[in-house]
Amino acid sequence: MAENTENTETTGWTGARNALGDFAPGMVHYTDRVLFDEVWEREGLSKRDRSLVTISALTALGKTDQLQFHLAFARQNGVSDDELKEALLHLAFYSGWPNGMGSTAVLKSIIEKETTA
Q: How many CB atoms lie within 10 A of CB 27?
């Protein structure tokens, strides 16, 4: 008998709803219900590990706009600032120095905003 790996519960995630409202209902649905309610809640990886994988992909692709959220989310998921700095340094060698520098600048901004708030 095959194992049921589907998560039918919702986490109440509303990030896309908050950002987009009714502008793009499909994007809201797939982001909030599928990506965050299902994919991020799967048991195969911890949220901490999912955060590191996500940051790696976004850094490699140069998606600093999405890194604003995901670096902060990684910190909530237990990844320390020092671990994030080290991961971004390592990624710079594999994904290109400009991508690593851009991602590190995003992390710096997040940390600085927190310390001045």
A: 12
- Number of neighbouring beta carbons within 10 Å of residue 116: 6
pLDDT digits (tens, 9 = 90+) for 55-92: 999 999 999 999 999 999 999 999 999 999 999 999 99
The predicted-structure confidence for 103-112, as pLDDT tens digits, reads as follows 999 999 999 9
CA nearest 31: which of 53, 5, 10? Answer: 10
Helix ranges restricted to H, 77-96: 81-95
Class of CATH domain 46-116: mainly alpha
Nearest-angstrom CA–CA distance, 14 and 23:
14
Nearest to 63 by CA among 23, 39, 95: 95
Domain ranges of the chain: 13-42, 46-116
Q: Minimal CA–CA distance to 66: which of 78, 81, 56?
A: 56
